[in-house]
Specification:
With about 160 residues, the chain is α+β, with helices and mostly antiparallel strands. It is about 35% helix and about 15% strand. The chain has a 5-stranded mixed sheet, sandwiched between helices. A hairpin with a 2-residue loop joins strand 3 and strand 4. The longest helix has 20 residues. It is globular. The N and C termini lie far apart (about 55 Å). Bound molecules: FE2/S2 (inorganic) cluster (2 copies). The site of one FE2/S2 (inorganic) cluster has 12 residues, from loops. The site of one FE2/S2 (inorganic) cluster has 10 residues, from loops.
Length: about 160
Amino acid sequence: MSKIAVSTRVNGDSAEFLCDAGESLLDALRWKLDLTGSKEGCGSGDCGACTVVMDGQMVCSCLVLAVEAEGRSITTIEGVAEGGRLHPVQEKFLELGALQCGFCTPGFIVAAKELLDRNPDPSESEIRYWLAGNLCRCTGYDKIVRAVQAAAAQMRQEGAAA
Ligand code: FES
Ligand code: FES
């Protein structure tokens, strides 16, 4: 079967790849663009390990066709740190031990950053509700929620000082 050429933007850079019609965006990111931070936990939209942002919308990249990336702008976990500095969500996950095996972590961080971009001061229930599509089999979630709260507080503080 002939391949389809896709031109897209990933983490601010233009990116091009050839894919099959039924190939997922997750597979294209991982195997065509070498962006292996997004993980495949289920391949069916249930675990959130493959979460990326496409044109401002969080999506499970395992459920998006690679061809749908044409002309879109995608942010993956590799695009979350900026200018050599980890994002506050990443810093707090490390500082507060909000990960164990780390398989779910890229999805949680992409989702948590998206939440804090929209709502700088979410309540605990808002955080839990927002992250309900991300599954973790290791941490029990409490440390993840604490890390997001701490990142939000740090971002508000940095915003106030700027
Ligand atoms: S791998 Fe996409 S939601 Fe689980
Ligand atoms: S840290 Fe292992 S699945 Fe979340």
